[in-house]
Amino acid sequence: MTMLEVRTVAVRFGGINALSDVSLDVAAGESVGLVGPNGAGKTTLFNCLLGSIKPSRGKITFEGRDLAGVPTFRRARLGLGRTFQRVELFAGMSAREHLLVAERSRRGDGSLLKDMLNRGKPRPDEIAVADETLALLGIGEYAEQPVESLTLGQSRLVELGRALVYMPKLLLLDEPSSGLDVVETLALAKVLASVRSERGTAILLVEHDLDLVRRAVDRLHVLDFGRTIAAGTCDAVLREQAVITAYLGVAAS
Amino acid sequence: MIDILNQLLDGVPTGCVYGLVAVGLVLTYKTSGVFNFAFGAQAFTSAVVFYICVRDHNWPLVPAAFFAIVVVSLALGLVLDQFIFKLLRTSPQLPKLVTTIGLMVGIPETVKAIFGGSTRNAPPSLAVGHGWHIASLSINADGVVTLVATFFVVIALTVLFRWTPIGLRMRAVVESHRLVELNGINAEHVSTFSWLLSSLLAGMAGVLLAPLFTVVDSNNFTLLIVAASAAAVFAGLSSIPLALVGGIVLGALQQLLAYHLPLNSVLAKNIRPSMPFILLAVLLLVRPGLRRQDVTDPLSGVDPPPPALAVTYMDPRLAKINRLLFLAFVTAVAIGVLFLLPGLWVSYLAEGLALTTIFLSITVLVGIGGQISLCQASFAGLGAFTAGQLATRWDFPLYGGIIVGAIVAAALGVLIALPCLRLGGLYLALGTLAFALMLQNTLFVEPWLTGSEGGVDVPRPLIGPIDFADDRAFFFFALAIFGLCGFAVVLLRRGTTGQYLAALRGSEVAATSVGINPIRAKVTVFAVSAAIAGAGGALYASYLETARVDDFNAIQGLFWVLLVVTLGSRTVDGALNAGMAFVLLPPLLGDILHVPSDLVVPIQFALFGFGAVTFARHQEGIVEYQKRASIERFNARLTRWFGPAKTRGAAPAPPGAPPAPAAAGP
What we know:
The structure holds 2 protein chains of 2 kinds. Chain A has helices at residues 42-50, 72-78, 95-107, 112-116, 124-136, 152-165, 182-199, 210-216, 234-239, 241-248; strands at 2-13, 16-27, 31-35, 57-62, 65-66, 80-82, 170-174, 202-206, 219-224, 227-233. Chain A is an alpha/beta fold. Chain B is built from 25 helices and 6 strands. Chain B is globular. Chains A and B meet through α2, α3, α4 and α6 of A and α18, α19, α20 and α21 of B.
């Protein structure tokens, strides 16, 4: 069953066509890679999916529901989770607190009234969820540390943890491996695999590390200059001439 | 037809005044990223110097103008740049705002302290001759001078920005001071140059504008800034010619309204003076493209994060000692108030507690919500008038009045929050200030709300058999209300709402990506803040036994915000310090230090105004900063005497690497 349907979406910034007529499907539980050179429009597409940019044309549906006009936080509640290319963390909060906020938001049972009755503090079961997730990501020992003291790689994992705690049905990952070393990248691939197998979460992965992509996705979608230039299984797509040209250029013969 | 044209033309000189100030605001914003609330204060300084030179010392006009505009304003500009704005170059929007608002309050008071605060009537004018008549249109000489000067300035600045290398650099520096430095340009020099340029403009504006008012008064200049900011917003804070156009349109519209609204109607009386503020509010709501204006420095990531609350650094043993000491302190104060302190000091303390309750609303909004609002005094006033009217008309008991006042204020808070919050940052500050001024000119002049002579009686509380009429008794009532509100603030910070708001402050996109509704969280905090302000206002009015418009005017509100933010907006004790400082400083200056009585208020305002400058360095507030420093000292001493603490790694923090904040305490 198709979960996410992107139909001929176009975005224009001034005179630049950041995206022109991109169409893309993600089925439930499927993992799709989105690759392309920098500036190809991958992050723009993510921003459209989460609603921080309004597409000038086209339609996006999630589980059969048209997303036009749906604000970001509601899309998150529908089941779209994401991480960011430029890390977006809550300054001044510890790693665990990041996950606690997401967990509270997922439960949706916090209210001003409860705060006033002193029932707003993080509860033991919420802390357990947060710590489990941090352990799964291998950053349990940094739970108490303010995020500013973490490395870029660890910060990305905190972001991923925050998204995972919210239990998205579709997880949008924007270059999760940039800033990670080889060992961390391998660990990341394992985490993604286990998230898929245990929770059946669908994944849309933007990534430059083609090794990670090959390991983590079923299908590949290639963008260049805002256009789809290829789509299909990893091996087939990476052999296509258009893709090679986009990534490596053409020989000046 | 010719009538309407004439009326419109009548508005042009005033419009040029708005335009000139708006150009100054846009210029400063464009070149330093600072929305300069102090522009009016700078203009005021030059106007006063010009007045003194001409009227008191009989200088000829031209050297006096040269001295006031070029020498004085450049000197003031240079001092401000070197000692204050230098520290702000790379800071975020909030410290910049707080600093310029502080200067707006501090500079005029300093000027008054230096040159005396006597009324300066009939300011001199640079214009000679009496005006011209063209056909049936007439225009006076002041108008012509303003007109010519304004157009000259606009053309010169446009040329500077469009076609000169220094103009290009000025535009680059404001995008990112640090990136420009990396490109080998001395951004310091460029910034100083920009700042001097806008200071010069401020001086010119001051000398030109002074004759348009009957007296040289700093409040006129403050109001002018807010009014002119409507024109600046019209220009998107970026286009100098558009700022001029906006100013002229504003002036003409105001004049047109003056002719066409029926003279004695409520509408004419209330709407006309608040026209610029209404326009500003409308512009903020409808002008597209304002949201994207907040420039974020691409290199802002190198700034250290805000420190955690000071209490989280505390050694557990120190926390225990602290708790005991706190109890001892509260007991001592209670005994002192009951038996020892003279009546005067008891009433100071009671007043301080009532004010602190109002200030808690600022703690909630600025410290927890990360939003700045400049209309807290209006909410407090609304609470006070509500309680007063309920008591006078229906013999409503005061505690009931406090509750109803809080609810009314909260309702108004939601009403304001919904349109304003979309904007955030600078625009929220402007919008709320415009709103406060609008309220002051419309609702707060209605006798059914504020009484016939700008005041309404508010009783002291009476609960069953207990009468709190006496100041000593009232102190404990105020303590109870303050305690309740303070506890609510702590619970809010710890609870879901506080966590969501902290997340939103950290990164709004990320917070929404985990399903947090930003509007709801912000409206909630705005409403809670307004409710606390309303309750505090009613309490304060009960202390004064009357609610007067003057106690809750917008400028007063500005001053409150400054004070709380400077001393510490994140904690309840920050608000308490602010409340007590506000009340205790005047008697301290007057009775103990024997400062002449006409200098007490200027010194108080100047002290707190310039105090706001420290905000740039210690955004957590002076109190929090000192608290953390002393906690670290005591932690170290405890460790030296009794060895390191055993539980959760709360050892003294090595500099630059604070330990993990535990759950935030009170």
